[in-house]
Every structure is written in structure tokens, then in C-alpha cells.
Amino acid sequence: MRLRLLPLLALLSLSALAAACAPNRIPGTEVPDSKENRAVYEVIRQYAEALRRKDAGAILNLVSPDYYDGSGTPDPGDDVTRETLEKNLATDLSKVEAVMLDLGVKKIDVVGDEARAEVFYDAAYRVATPAGPIAKRPSDLSEMRFRKLKGNWKISAGL
Q1: Is the pLDDT at 16 greater than 90, yes or no?
Q2: Is the separation of the CB atoms in 64 and 83 below 8 Å?
Q3: What separation, in Å, do the N-terminal and C-terminal C-alpha atoms of the chain show?
Q4: Which of 14, 28, 90, 103 is most buried (CB neighbours < 10 A)?
Q5: Cβ–Cβ contacts within 10 Å for residue 40, how many?
Q6: Strand pairing partners for 11?
Q7: Backbone angles phi and psi of 113, in degrees to 5
């Protein structure tokens, strides 16, 4: 009986050692917990909260002055800059009703003063139109980009 316990104890010891060597993760994610990752994660969390509240000012406070997003198309007509956000965000958000948003951060990569985050979002909301409200239910994997300016991370693309 004693001989059978030795392999079990060795296995338990190895499991404990492996767990002790595993990197810490930001709670609720698989993202390694580091000062920079946590700072980028916090900006994503603040963005999600501001979006749920439809708070254009709070969102703009998180956005880099050189924000630019090509919207994934070759058409410059749908490109988004800081200027277009300042001009349109409050009006666009005023047309949105009953916002439900879940964001899951899958990955954060920080290189110097730039970072990228892979974010899964699942949203539900209604958009007010002249014909009446239209329900939307988008979900997708998206990339957000960040730039560190004066010690603070700002969103530079991907809203």
C-alpha cells in the first residue's frame, strides 16, 4: 500500500509546483498580469462602462488625439478619426437605447509605448430610426490598439 502512495505524492507535488510556476492572470481572463497589461485592461474596462452609460465625454477622454481607424475597408469615407468621434459620437450614442454589452479580453500585447488587445464583444441594443427602433445583436472578435501618452494608455484605433 505504501508503494502506491509514493507515485501519488510525487504527482501531487509536481502539480503544486507547476501551479506555483504558472504566471498570474488578470482575473476573469487568460491575460498575464503585469503592470502594463493591467493598465491597458483598465482602459478597456473604462471604455465598456462609458459605452454602457452612453457617455461620449468619458469615451473621448480615453481616446488618443491621433486616433485613426480605417474601418477595415479601402473606402476613406468610413474612416474614423478623433475629429469625427468628437463631431458624431454624442449624437450617435443618443440614438442608442437599452445597451447591454459584455467584453472579454482575450489577449494583450504591449511593445514599448504601443499595445494591442484582442477583445470579444457581445452586445444588444436598439437604434432609434425614423421608422422606429431597430434591435441589434452584434458579437465579434475585435482588435483595439493603444498608445501610451504622458504615462497614460489611450485608445488609438478599434472602437
Answers
A1: no
A2: no
A3: 62
A4: 103
A5: 24
A6: none
A7: -100, 20
Place of cell 436598439: 126
Global pTM? 0.82
Neighbouring residues of 7: CB distance < 8 A, sequence distance ≥ 6? none
Contact 40, 110 (CB under 8 A): yes
The domain 32-157 is placed in CATH, from the list 1.10.260.40, 3.30.300.30, 1.20.272.10, 3.10.450.50, at 3.10.450.50
3-state SS class at 93:
helix
Question: Do the Cβ atoms of 158 and 136 come closer than 8 Å?
Answer: no
Distance of alpha carbon 90 from alpha carbon 129, whole angstroms: 16
Sign of CA dihedral 46, 150, 30, 13: negative
